[in-house]
Amino acid sequence: xxxxxxxxxxxxxxxxxxxELVNPKSPGLCAGIHVIEHSTxxxxxxxxxxxxxxxxxxxxxxxxxxxxxxxxxxxxxxDGSGSFISFQSDSMPVTKYRTVLGYDLDGIEEGDSGHVVTxxxxxxxxxxxxxxxxxxxxxxxxxxRFTTWNPNASNDSxxxxxxxxxxxxxxxx
Length: 173
Prior knowledge:
Blueprint: E1 30-38, E2 42-43, E3 48-56, E4 63-75, E5 83-89, E6 95-97, E7 100-104, E8 112-121, E9 131-138, E10 146-149, E11 165-172
Antiparallel strand pairs: 1-11, 2-10, 3-9, 4-8, 4-10, 4-11, 5-6, 5-9, 7-8
C-alpha cells in the first residue's frame, strides 16, 4: 500500500548528526527485480524460438540488466553462433541480443550443457511499463548446442529432479 508523507522540515534528533535523503531515482538504484523460471522439458531444434516467460516492467524511465542460465542436455558439436535472447512487448517489436554464451559441464557431447545469458538494455529500448515476453533460440542452421532444454532423470539417471532455467532481470535507474 502506498503512503504519502508531507513535512515542512526534517531535522535529526541529535543536532550533531546529518540527515541525508536519497533521491528515489538516483542513478544505479534498483527499482525492481523480476525472476522468470522455466522447468518444462523441451526438445530443441535449429532455427527455432522458445518462450522463457514474461515479466512486467514497473517504470517507463528504467533500464534493464539480465542474467540467467538455460539448462541443456545431449550437447551437439556446434558453435551456438545463431543463439540469441529476445525481448518483446505490445509496444516494442522483437529485439534480439547476442549475449548468449554456451557452456559444457562435462567436456563431452553427451551430458549437461547449456547457455549463460547476460546483458543490459538501455531505457530507450524498453521505454514502456508493460508486460514483456522473453524468448531465446537459434536463427542460424546447425547452431543449437543441445537437443533438450531443462532435462530430467529420464535423460540421465544422475540428474536429480527437473532442471529449471532461471532468468533474473534487474530494473534500475
